[in-house]
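Lay summary. Proteins are chains of building blocks that fold into shapes, and those shapes determine what they do. In this project we predict the shape from the chain. Here is one chain we studied, written as its sequence of building blocks.
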Amino acid sequence: MKHGKASKTAELSAMIRTLATNNKYGKKVFNDPYSRYFISTKTRFIYILNRIHSLINPAFWSTGMNSVGYLLSLCRHRYIYEMLVSELKNQNTQILIIGAGYDTSYLLLKDKPGFSSFFELDFPATQQRKRKILQKYFKELPNLYFCEIDLKLKSVNQALLNSNYNNTLPTFIIIEGVLSYLTKPEIEKLLNELSVLSNQVKIIADYRKPGLDMQKNTTAKKWTKSFSQYHEKYVSFYNEDEMNDLLKKANFNIIENKDLLDLWITQNQLVPNKNLNGFGGIFIAEHGK
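And here is the predicted shape, written in a compact code that computers can read:
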């Protein structure tokens, strides 16, 4: 991502959720009526082309690069959202989203019972664009807090200063599509910090696996190569055992750690693309009471 520019991949993620919401197959994976607000004019052109393609091609979601960037990211987002809804059943749980981009979980849940405080952390330019769009469509956004951060320059604790974050309350932390852009020392430092962020911490995060760098995984490699035009490149890779060791070193108890492909929904045309095996993993871990 270019310095001082809002994240393009965050916008593309919003575009993918919009595309799914307006498609009978994609909607089965995730329904997001708010993501359309974050699509710019240039990205809308990409959306229209994909919308036409998805209507005329029943296998749109499960073939080629669409299965990596579109369906796989939707399945990941759906799974994280379901975990978030479950965590909100626990009274007083705070939600912390690191690298929130144009995540709309707050909008989807703000009127639901059990709603709690949301803290969104991201680069200044991305947050400024998001706040401007939200102000256009919503008069009030209670219990939503924006905290600017560059994880390479500032700690999460520093970003949360002067916010209403309460380190005595349980905190559910979401890190979606972020860890792979950080170096391994940066990830280790982040996990160590998050483990003691509050008295009770639970994290859900995804990561990339070493197999993604292998020449035989051509589908995944084509997708990751396309990121170069947005100045975003994967720099860290872990297998499941390596990630488990890292979490244990940071004093986390591992609840779950599995392949992203396991999150795939399998009904009608939504059939797993086996070429994506080893693309990445996702874990849930906790620390504290």
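What the prediction tells us: The two ends are 38 Å apart (CA to CA).
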